[in-house]
Design goal:
By secondary structure, the chain is α/β, with parallel strands linked by helices. It folds into two domains: 270 residues, Aldehyde Dehydrogenase, Chain A, domain 1; 187 residues, Aldehyde Dehydrogenase, Chain A, domain 2, CATH 3.40.309. Helix content is 38%, strand content 23%. The chain contains 16 helices and 25 strands. α2 crosses α7 and α10 crosses α11. The longest helix has 19 residues. It is globular and about 85 Å long. Bound molecules: nicotinamide-adenine-dinucleotide. The site of nicotinamide-adenine-dinucleotide has 27 residues, from α8. GO terms for molecular function: methylmalonate-semialdehyde dehydrogenase (acylating, NAD) activity. It comes from Embleya hyalina. Its EC number is 1.2.1.27. This is methylmalonate-semialdehyde dehydrogenase (CoA acylating).
Length: 500
């Protein structure tokens, strides 16, 4: 029995027949476990017309009603998180505890959006001019689209849709075709939470669906997360069609380790941030910049921890790291490991020979944790986002050299500094050209009431995800200048209004 995943439109599974479909795999076994429909232009249009109709009602639903539905959704999500985590594990491959972690980080944004009556408040100035009050209101955009990547099938859509829905928009989610079932599970929860039909819709598919979303005149904004080339494409084309776009791209995150840092803690952090979710995190650390003379000692500690990591199926509670998402992606990561060797880096731990636990895992998409030393900035293992469990160590002689390396990198998503020197950390936070900074924190994903976003090639657009930026992105402002007439206001005056 395989699972058939189709679009979710108007609070129900779509009943049509798609002309194109893709396979869904279990990355731990390599087996095909289902198929997913790929939307045509007509299928996208059907979802959008439902979202347009639903917008007319939802934009006028009271703040109290909207936040009540969000509270219901939050309760359902929390109650069903284990079931949802199992779905994520089966299609993405990450370990169950990590899947629970991404649900928790998404739930944070739902919780933030429960407070929408407060978040969406405008300003009010009484008596801005004599007898005149000025105030601002923020209104929803209309149907909005979210296009998400494979690596966080629950969390990344939840960076956006709780706030989009709370602010009165209707949503079309186009999830990754690699792990599509999570989106439908979340859609079912919205239905149970009492969200009116057509407010949250899911369209599955590939470039055909994305291109139709970008050009569709009734879609007012696009929130995209994925690789940098596609993020740039989505930004350029979405804005060309007059949409508001925030497009979050790829990353190469550096961890700068100063000689005074506690190397035991640094080694733990490097292993957690380098190999958690098999390195398939946009905030994973993939480049460790060691300020000499600590590199030898630190590498020894990291190596010792890596060899003990238990790699296996995500549904085995003993596993600490799972497989990569597809055979094609695993092959790409393996080709980078070979390129690192060929280009002269020192292969300290070879993930190709790491033992894999579990019975049914022979055909899975495995690459074990891999460590390179003596990596230089021209090598492809450094220049490219590998998005796998490959950690590169670059040796530098000073803080300034380390900073220059990080600032020369075209990506600017996250970075971390490890040190016990507060002054150095403060200098780093001021000088580094990256959007999210960790000080002795390896994966500094901001909490929901701040906003998530990188700099340079890691984000195209202005507003970051969730937090105050999220509310700003999903609403547009109006400013009202009001006067209630009385006889003293009469008379002709052709001058420009002044503030008397
Ligand atoms: P991807 O760019 O391949 O796909 C992202 C989305 O775009 C998917 O929905 C996919 O169907 C669609 N897509 C793919 N190719 C397309 C094309 N040619 N035209 C139009 N649409 C297309 O990314 P992925 O492999 O799913 O995810 C991994 C990438 O996402 C990594 O680069 C990672 O760094 C990045 N990411 C970034 C962040 C961030 O916050 N900056 C967060 C998570 C993931």
């Amino acid at each position: 029995m395989t699972n058939h995943v189709t679009h979710w439109i108007a609070n129900a599974e779509w009943t049509g027949t798609s002309e194109r479909r893709g396979d869904i795999h279990n990355p731990a076994t390599g087996k095909v476990t289902g198929t997913v429909d790929f939307a045509s232009v007509a299928e996208v249009d059907e979802a959008v017309s439902v979202a347009v109709r639903a917008f007319a009602g939802w934009r006028n639903a009271s703040l109290a009603k909207r936040s009540q539905v969000l509270f219901n959704f939050r309760e359902l999500l929390n109650a069903k998180k284990d079931e949802l985590a199992a779905i994520i594990v089966a299609e993405h491959g990450k370990v169950h505890s990590d899947a629970l972690g991404e649900i928790a980080r998404g739930q944070e944004v739902v919780e933030l959006a429960c407070g929408i009556p407060h978040l969406q408040k405008g300003g009010h100035s009484e008596q801005a001019s004599t007898g005149i009050d000025v105030y601002s209101i923020r209104q929803p955009l209309g149907p909005v689209a979210i296009i998400s990547p494979f690596n966080f099938p629950a969390m990344v859509p939840m960076w956006f849709f709780p706030i989009a829905i709370a602010t009165g928009n209707t949503v079309i989610l186009k999830p990754s075709e690699k792990d599509p079932s999570t989106a439908n599970f979340l859609a079912e929860l919205w239905k149970q939470a009492g969200l009116p039909e057509g407010v949250f819709n899911v369209v599955h598919g590939d470039k055909v669906a994305v291109d139709r979303i970008l050009e569709h005149p009734d879609i007012k904004s696009v929130s995209f997360v994925g690789s940098t080339p596609i993020a740039k494409y989505v930004y350029e084309n979405g804005t060309r069609y007059g949409k508001r776009v925030q497009a979050l791209g790829g990353a190469k995150n550096h961890m700068l380790v100063l000689p005074d840092a506690d190397l035991e803690l640094v080694a733990d952090a490097a292993v957690n941030a380098g190999f958690g979710a098999a390195g398939e995190r946009c905030m994973a650390i993939s480049a460790l910049v060691a300020v000499e003379p600590i590199a030898d000692e630190l590498i020894g500690k990291i190596k010792e921890r890596m060899t003990k990591l238990r790699v296996g199926a995500g549904n085995d509670a003993a596993s600490e790291m799972g497989p990569l998402v597809t055979r094609q992606h695993a092959d790409k990561v393996l080709s980078y490991v070979q390129a690192g060797v060929d280009q002269g880096a020192t292969l300290v731990v070879d993930g190709r020979t790491h033992p894999i636990n579990g019975d049914d895992t022979a055909e899975g998409y495995w690459v074990g944790p891999t460590l390179f030393d003596n990596v230089t900035p021209e090598m492809s293992i450094y220049t490219d986002e590998i998005f796998g469990p490959v950690l590169s160590v670059l040796r530098v002689d000073s803080y300034d050299q380390g900073l220059a390396l990080i600032n020369a990198n075209p990506y600017g998503n996250g970075t971390a500094i490890f040190t016990n020197d507060g002054g150095a950390a403060r200098k780093f936070q001021n000088e580094v050209e990256v959007g999210m900074i960790g000080i002795n924190v390896p994966i500094p994903v901001p909490v929901a009431y701040y906003s998530f976003g990188g700099w340079k090639n890691s984000l195209f657009g202005d507003l970051h995800a969730y937090g105050a930026d999220g509310v700003q992105f999903f609403t547009r402002g109006k400013v009202v200048t009001q006067r209630w007439l009385d006889p003293s206001h009469g008379g002709i005056n052709l001058g420009f209004p002044t503030n008397d």
